[in-house]
Amino acid sequence: MKRCVLLLMALLLSATAWAHKPSDSYLTLRATEGSKDITVRWDIALRDLDYVLQLDRDGNGELSWGEVRQREADITRLATSRLALSAADKPCTWASTGPLMLDKHSDGNYAVLSLSAQCEGTDRAIKARYSLFFDVDPTHRGLVQWIAPGSAGAQALIFGTESAEQSLALLPTGAWQTLRQYLVDGVWHIWIGYDHILFLLALLLPAVLVRREGRWEPAPQLGGAVKEVLKVVTAFTLAHSITLSLAALEVVTLPSRWVESAIAASVVIAALSNLRGSLENRRWIMAFVFGLIHGFGFASVLADLGLPKDALVLALVGFNVGVELGQLAIVAVFLPLAFSLRATRFYRVGVLKLGSVIVAMLAAWWLVQRLFEL
Predict the structure, then answer these.
(1) What per-residue string of b and e applies to 295-321 under the rule 16 or more CB within 10 Å gives b?
(2) 304-321: pLDDT as tens digits
(3) How buried is 337 (Cβ within 10 angstroms: 0-12 exposed, 13-18 middle, 19+ buried)?
(4) Maximum CA pair distance of the chain?
(5) Counting Cβ atoms within 10 Å, is residue 3 exposed (0-12), middle (13-18) or buried (19+)?
(6) Which of 287, 322, 352, 366 is the most interior residue, by most CB within 10 Å?
């Protein structure tokens, strides 16, 4: 059991050294009735391009527009070599339709490619094979909005190492497909949202303990620990569901920089509270208050993914449910392990105290990075 907990902590802490948002690129593919061309807008993170193509020529750690613009041909060549479209089993050919541009997403600047894929016909079976950055980052994904000929809405597709080749539907996407797609994406985003996970775990670590005379002691019954976990998880779920929905529907919006900074600060506060033991049975209050901020963080991810206008509610519900399922899976792994080790010094000192210190330090570094855009 100790080895399992140590492995889980090592995986989480090593993952937290990376930026909050994983490597994604964004594509919009649009086909028009009666045309053989598929127009493509492709947003690719400059940090990813710099890693592969070494765009920063002077090595000063900052990319200028001139440095990016000089490598337009290399960027286009890399991109078109990693996305293959075919119609009726015949490959489409690429052409550039506009100059390289820049756009800003929630996690930084992106190069924007304007392309056209010339196919045999867009009224036939169309397949796409995506492999951008898979060779250097197996967690990278391509987030695609596919607009079929004559369709007013878009089909959302997610390309990963295990879903590198997919078909582009010529008929409108059904309700079940939309719900399923966004549900899967919600699960994925909570699992790779390391700051969200660490905030939740920091609040849950004391759930299997009770505070007596200024000391942590093992909880006598599993039922009490389960009750504490349910209070925290329910409060966190309710709070971030509220703000996720409000932000996704554009009722309330906040600057991404301040939201991400506040999320990092919430992890610091949650971790440090374990050292003082000051919250005791009020951790659910912190879960709710900061859960409202975390909801805006989820919303920025959903905004980058894109919401289909003709299935807005379904997509929002699917993503929200996916986040909760992913969250429950994490809790299902954590609680039995933590409860079985609650009486050991290893858990009370090594996991709770030392683990909280490490998490607070990492989150403090995140806070500095996000506040000052390092």
Answers:
(1) bbbbbbbbbbbebbeebeebbbbbbbb
(2) 766 666 667 788 888 889
(3) middle
(4) 77
(5) exposed
(6) 287
